[in-house]
């Protein structure tokens, strides 16, 4: 614990010393005081995810067209790293999530999720890992450890957030490729949360391991397009969120073997304005209700629990990015219950794609645009 505190302190010092290189900060009103926003880096093409490297190396940032870069402590962008797999960069597809191995200090492994092309112009989500070179110039020996099968996407609903638990498992939150019935089909990997070992092996205690005609990787099913996944640091349980159709974005706490409803149960309607053909209503027998739901979709992406000491007012809050609503959503938690919601930063006018808590206790956001930004968000001292 002392070592982690020292790391956070050193990271804070590095960033504080380079603060003059950041544009801003601007400040905005919130229920908990003035929120500050500084631009750390810009000129990123549709950035999708970020991961913090050990100090003082900076952060890895993915760009959807297929580039992985390092943003250093001064906000400078590296050239694209070598060794990145070829991606299916169409529609919502491309290079997506990035996570460091839990043992990165020893193995330097980086995990990437991305849209991978298949036959007939179709694509699916893939996950692979490789070693970050000692000079940080590229990813070495990249190897695919998971492929969504079959490949059904024509450019949408790849999902693909990654999260490690504390017991040696990797969870992958997947989309249903806009093929609604597949989310209920246990023989397909669309619309599922899957649980594997970091090398791609399937745990024997997965809920459908050994079940005929079911994929053993599956942890939960009945999901639509999941673009948020994080472990609650207080309960140790996985939380995910997913896009509804026209309405019905939702947060879930996926339990093994459970059905989360899509498309049998939804709070949304089709983009045409008609009901979802398969839907039986907002609930359906044998399915789990959402833990939290938005009747009107903010179009959520990225999520981070706040458990740092820097801003005590944010303790036990969950932060979620919103694309269409162009806001940072703050959910105040009472245990697992969402006690209050606040929308932050709407006046920025930015689509927020990813949210991460930094080792310095600030929040870091990525904005989704052809010239996207990396933002650092905090609270002014009272």
TrEMBL record:
Signal sequence bounds: 1-23
Residues of the Glucose/Sorbosone dehydrogenase domain: 44-376
Keywords tagged on the record: Signal
Entry keyword annotation includes Signal: yes
PANTHER family named among the record's database cross-references: ALDOSE SUGAR DEHYDROGENASE YLII (PTHR19328:SF75), HEDGEHOG-INTERACTING PROTEIN (PTHR19328)
Protein name per the record: Oxidoreductase
